[in-house]
Amino acid sequence: MKKHIVFATGSRADYGIMRRYLDLLNKDSDIELGIMATGALLDKNYGHQVDLIYKDGFCVEVEIPLDLDTTSNRAVVHAMADGMDKFADYFSKTKIDLLIILGDRYEMLSVAVAAAMQRIPILHVHGGEATFANYDEFIRHAITKMSTFHFTSTEVYRKRVIQLGEQPDRVFNVGALGAENCLYINEKNVLKEVRQFPNKKYFVVLFHPETLMDIDVVEQVNQLLTAISFYKEYKFIFLGSNADTHSELIRSNIKSYVDENNNAYYFENFHTDAYHYLLKHAICLIGNSSSGIIEAPSLGIYTVNIGRRQDGRVKGNSVIDTVCDEESIRNAVDIVLKNYKNIAPVNPYYQENSSLKYYTKTKELIEILNECREPKMFYDIAF
User: How many angstroms separate the first and last alpha carbons of the chain?
Assistant: First the structure.
């Protein structure tokens, strides 16, 4: 009998990261793979990216829209509550052998709670990581405690998941899928609008809110925009921010800047292959996206990592950390412009054949699901 595996996804990023792994699961005759789409994927303001999942040929088993509002943390909590009720209804009516959740999005915490209450086994991807400036930090660790199995992206993170009390024989360091996926770009998915930019003559900018910091997000964006305004000879390609608290302020200020500057461009969303194509041919990535830590090094480019959103992550030699002020950002960009032709990035997240490792290990785990129905025991580390 086929095993019913469901991947829950609420953003362009987590779906893009998982795509090659999902394709292997989808082609397995012993697995019935379904996608549960929610969050920003279903929102027209964020590009209605669920359309790409359909285009890629996956079965979107259910669409669960949320009342998304990023104007305050209170509004985000409302979206989480709205989601938990809807997810609970879905899980109570659907037999699922294994639920796969990636990372730390707030809507995924609601998914995890609803599934765990129904005793659905959860495979958690990218646990054990640290991002101290965002609510992603505690959400990620909370999902870990509700999960049955864990795929981590480095050995440091594997040890941290065990430190959280998870059984070592259920925690596996299999690398980061994104670090491998970005090397396989299907140029059929790269639009003409993306190909227009000349090789190594532009920067990609992707900036998200720092949701646990007492800061003025508009001031942060203004510091970034002021810094890059000094480089008129280059083009700057901005991508839409995540659906996090105050992301609408980032989006509106960037759009205004793009309207006023003929060397700036804005894309709300496009295919993962198009994003990786842009990164590969860019001078570097500027902003605070995790893709600058995990994917950009595999593509051979620098990352100017701004602010504290990614504080706590393992980072390779091509990541330049800087505080969020105009002068510091410019200094970092100047370092990139001086050295980008000779960079040799080392990516601590990369493992060869990581997608195959994920798939093979998942096949092993679904064979022992019945052995894992008992409540989890807390694994104590001897001090």
Answer: 45
Residue in the block written with tokens 């990261």: 17
Measured N-to-C along each axis, helices 217-228 and 326-339 cross at an angle, to the nearest 10 degrees, of 40
CB 136 within 8 A of CB 166: no
Q: How much is the pTM? A: 0.95
Quick one: which of 227, 202, 232, 243 has its CA closest to 307?
Answer: 227
Beta strands at 98-102 and 60-64: parallel, antiparallel or unpaired: unpaired
Angle at 14 between CA 13 and CA 17, to 5 degrees: 85
Which segments of the chain have a pLDDT < 50? none
Residue type, 254: I
How confident is the model at residue 213, as a pLDDT? 83
**287 φ/ψ sector (left φ>0, alpha ψ -120 to 50, else beta):** left
pLDDT digits (tens, 9 = 90+) for 237-268: 999 988 888 899 999 999 999 999 999 999 98
Structure confidence at residue 243 (pLDDT)? 82
Q: Which two tokens stand for residue 105?
A: 């999005």
Rounded alpha-carbon distances, angstroms, from residue 104 to 186, 250, 306:
28, 21, 20
Residue of 243, 288, 220 lying closest to 70 (CA atoms): 243
CA angle 307, 256, 219 (to 5 degrees): 30
Which tokens belong to 252? Answer: 């509106």
For β-strands 302-306 and 60-64, DSSP reports them as unpaired
| Residue (of 10, 49, 75, 130) closest to 248 by Cα position | 75
Q: Which amino acid is at 205?
A: V
